[in-house]
Specification:
about 450 residues; alpha/beta; Rossmann fold; UDP-N-acetylmuramoyl-L-alanine:D-glutamate ligase; Protein-Tyrosine Phosphatase, Chain A; 3 domains; nine-stranded mixed sheet; six-stranded mixed sheet; 17 helices; about 35% helix; globular; disordered C terminus
Length: about 450
């Protein structure tokens, strides 16, 4: 009886070995499900805390698919694991599966195997500015009548973009995706910048930087930020283009000279012709121009697209101007470097800036953010889970600070005399909101006097 039971278990294990296991039932996990269903493959989706909404979404994709809680037994018995980027490889269940020899692949890995080899692939990573540059470059390509799909970590997952008729793909790529990217390779790629972030996921800042920098080992043409103080390995790149805040070094370099954007010695446009604010956005435009030039897009077409570009929601977005005060939504600033860039971008345009900052700090050093931005601020309102960390950092810089519980109270606590109220949290949003978009929309509703919806 015991040997029969053992044989039954082994037979069952062999059956399960034929299954692909998708880990994570979020946006990328569902893109894995669609990809596998379209190919008639059998799979199961695992999540740490599966819910009814996820089950309904999965049933709409494939009524044969199942959503279960993550378990060691399922992972170790899998034929292969398709891992959503939001799930760390370092978890003990995944490490046990990896040790047992189960292949673990990410969406970029699967995309690389399915992508038509004749199409161009552009990859954009970095700590800040990825979504802006990805979107702008996509608009430049569209204006040049080059049919390229735009998405990745931004918007549509890369597997959902797959299209045999497309001439190429412009992908925003996160460090989490690069951890499991397998053979993924780009024709043109950039690391826009490097700044401390996600220190709750990586065991060191160097580990995070190395993960981002590995993008240059996956590309033919590199576009490099000359302002980034990091020694990138560009040995495998056939071409190197660059951008930065200072004078370009050569014709393959883009930069700023006296308030104008240049390629080499060629003046392209004046910064005031752009609709987006701040030097950080000027650098984003330069990065997009450099990547477009590497793709051989027509420069005049790209410049027209740059002049039309109005930026993205939740990125230094002007919400309302009322009684001489401007409210700006920069909810996308989920790390200190993004907040520093937003504040610097307003220097010279505002006399008195009130900063609303708070959320989940992700173990980031808020003292550095306070030191760099304090000279430009008249008031800081700290809110959310790590409000005390932020408030303490700014008090040490002798800035007037108000500490509150939530965003409603933060908006209500804005002091008189500020001509700019800047929501640039420097933190993740998940303590009180679904994501940074939810936080930004809630802020806009508060500013417009409409009231928000429940922040849970």
């Amino acid at each position: 009886m015991g040997s029969h039971a053992k044989a039954m278990r082994e037979g069952s294990r062999d059956d399960v070995r034929e299954e692909t296991v998708v880990v994570g039932a979020g946006r990328t996990g569902m893109s894995f499900a669609r990809y596998l269903s379209q190919r008639g493959e059998h799979y199961v989706v695992l999540d740490q805390a599966p819910n009814d909404q996820q089950r309904e979404a999965l049933q709409e994709i494939d009524d044969r698919a199942h959503l279960e809680r993550i378990s060691n037994e399922r992972l170790i018995a899998a034929r292969e694991i398709l891992l959503s980027p939001g799930v760390p490889r370092s978890g003990h269940e995944l490490q046990a599966a990896i040790t047992s020899g189960v292949p673990v692949r990410g969406d970029l890995d699967v995309f690389a195997g399915a992508c038509n080899t004749t199409t161009q692939v552009v990859a954009i990573t970095g700590t800040n500015g990825k979504s802006t540059v990805t979107t702008l470059l996509g608009q430049m390509a569209a204006a040049a009548e080059l049919s390229m799909k735009v998405g990745g970590n931004l918007g549509i997952p890369c597997l959902d973009l797959l299209d045999e008729t497309s001439k190429g793909y412009i992908l925003e790529v996160s460090s989490y995706q690069l951890e499991s990217a397998g053979p993924f390779h780009a024709d043109v790629a950039t690391v826009l910048n490097l700044a401390p972030d996600h220190l709750d996921r990586y065991d060191s800042l160097e580990h995070y930087y190395e993960t981002k920098a590995s993008m240059y080992q996956r590309t033919n043409i590199a576009v490099v930020n000359r302002d980034t103080d990091y020694s990138f390995d560009l040995s495998g790149c056939g071409e190197v283009w660059s951008f930065g805040s200072r004078r370009p070094l050569d014709d393959q370099g883009f930069g700023l000279i006296g308030g104008a954007l240049f390629q080499g010695e060629n003046r392209l446009l004046d910064a005031h012709e752009l609709k987006v604010r701040g030097i950080h956005n000027q650098l984003n435009v330069l990065a997009a121009l450099a990547m477009g030039a590497a793709l051989r897009l027509d420069m005049q077409v790209m410049l027209r697209a740059a002049r039309r570009f109005e930026g993205l929601s939740h990125r230094c977005e002007t919400v309302e101007e009322r009684n001489g005060r401007v409210f700006i939504n920069d909810s996308k600033a989920t790390n200190p470097a993004a907040t520093e860039a937003a504040v610097r971008g307003l220097v010279g345009q505002a006399k008195a800036i009130c900063l609303l900052a708070g959320g989940i700090a992700k173990d980031a050093d808020m003292r550095s953010m306070a030191r760099s931005t304090a000279p430009h601020l008249t008031h800081v309102v700290a809110f959310g889970r790590d409000a005390e960390v932020i408030a303490s950092a700014y008090r040490s810089e002798a800035v007037a600070v108000t500490q509150v519980d939530d965003l409603d109270q933060a908006v209500a606590a804005v002091a008189d005399g500020s001509d700019v109220v800047l929501l640039s949290p420097g933190c993740a949003s998940f303590d009180q909101f679904r994501n940074f978009e939810h936080r930004g929309d809630y802020f806009k509703a508060l500013v417009h006097g409409l009231g928000g919806t429940d922040g849970d």
